[in-house]
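Summary for the lay section of the report: proteins are chains of building blocks that fold into shapes. Here we show the chain for Exopolygalacturonase-like and then a coded description of the shape we predicted for it.
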Amino acid sequence: MGLKLKNVLPMFMFLLLASTAKAQPAALDVTSAKYGGKPDSDITQALEKAWTDACASTTPSKIVVPKGTFKFVGTTFKGPCKAAIEFQVQGTLQAPVDGSQLPKDDTWIGFDHVDGLTLSGGGTFDGQGAQSWKNNDCNKNRECKSKHINLRFHFLTNSKILDVTSKDSKNFHVNLLKCEKVEIKGFTVSAPKESMNTDGIHIGRSTGISITDTTIGTGDDCISIGDGTKDITVTNVTCGPGHGIAIGSLGRYPEEEPVSGINIKKCTLTDTTNGVRIKTWPASPKDGTASDIHFEDITMVNVGNPILIDQEYCPWNECKKGVPSKVKISNVSFKNIKGTCTDPVAVKLVCAQGMPCENVELSDIDLKYTGNKGPITSVCSNVKPTINRVPQPLACATGAAAA
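The coded shape description reads as follows.
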């Protein structure tokens, strides 16, 4: 009996190790002889071939871009695929400086209709956007062409974006549209404050997105949440420079969908023009809603306007300011928000005339003004917020109802 067991155990361990080895994703290294990619050269074709093989595989696979710098003209990696794919970038992918060399649409790297994608590896997606920012005149030229987005995800499901960096995008760094159950963790966005229209992460018409342990420094909103977005969790995000964390802008276009279930917690904003805000356009072409939006445990360090609802958002005078917004805002809370601000109006809740904001709460607000333009204050219109443990200057100078 003992002899038989002695003979069986090695065979059992061999089979166990063999089955474990089979479970590991096959590695498709773009610098292998099969794909022919080389550092400091264009690996567009090598990556496209590796994606084709990975997408056709019936077992999970892993595409590897090893350490080093690689040129990449850009493409959209399309699904659906037959199994999960890990896209591991260990080195740096560089976009062409000249936007005319990029794909005809406004996407440098895209992932479309993919289920079970993991984008990882600790590498960098370098959009080389400095020249594009200098030539960006969209604030005064309505005919300007949209610049390229570093990473665009369309119809992505059950996926993860882990420990990678988006650097110097020509336009938005990340755009998620119609995605479901996507985790973004350990992500970094790096761009100077003068980079125009470079939102860190923009989310539209997506559900079940979580963003955690992420650092964003850019020239526009660190995170912006567009219409049709539901069930979003943002935790432990460091923002700055940039324009803050924003819901919106909303109410500009006729086919917009409701926004609900947004939870933003334990974030730190430093040297941003705004803190946490909801912004909607006046003269909305259609009724809309934004509800169940909660900001909690937020630290502000030298932030312009820390707490803001702006239903008269109208950059570059592109709207009819005298016509109220039609976006109904309700069930919003700002809790435990502390730190310093560079504008004396620390709390500004400007809601739509004829459609007041409902069920707005301010609790445990402790903000100090660092400038010399007068005392710290708050301004509110078309809203009667519930106030808990908020000092009088911040407790809505007009229209407030104390609890």
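Put simply, here is one thing we learned. The two ends are 79 Å apart (CA to CA).
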